[in-house]
Design brief:
The protein has a single domain, classed as Heme Oxygenase, Chain A. 33% of the residues are buried. Helix 3 packs antiparallel against helix 5, helix 7 packs antiparallel against helix 10 and helix 8 crosses helix 9. It has eleven helices and no strands. It has 211 residues and is mainly α.
Amino acid sequence: MQQTSWMLVRLSTETRIHHAGADGDRLAMMERPSDRSYRSFLERVYCFEAPLEAAFALTRRFDRGLVGTHMKTKRLATDLDALGVDVAALDIASSDGPVHRTAFDDVAEALGWMYVVQRNILLHGLLSRHLATRIPEAMRRAGSYLTAHDSPGMRFRELGSILDHAAHRTYIADRIVRSASEAFRCQRQWYACVATRVIHARPAPDPIHAD
């Protein structure tokens, strides 16, 4: 029997105050699903997670294998393309939002953020099953991101093993927890921000009507 990750237990306990908000931001998609709202949902997720994936990859000594197995922004881009969205025109969060523009300061900080991203994925099975009954055509064409992790619990446990190994000093474990709390706050801030703004970059003015 696989032993429960002590760092996952600690992170769950010490970041619990953020869980309801984080879950609500994802599960809101279930309230009034439509092709349009689903497209907007994927845009929001892509604009938050794409800069993170780049930051993970650039972080010194961060396990590159984690990026390949635990991040799926390429699938997000594929789904958005299937829905007629040019991802190059999206207003990526790192340009004016709370997300890192380059690498994280160290592995501990990166792992705290990875925990938050991976915890979101635990909801994907519920989301995909619900949306498949409400917007089946959109999910058929553009559902690869939500179904990318066939065993999200297993991936989460894998991350737990990496967290346990990394947190071999108390100060490192403390830093991971602080980083996760900051990631939850930034994620909530991002979702609140995009709820009141247009996520697409502003188009160039029509030369016929430009002053």
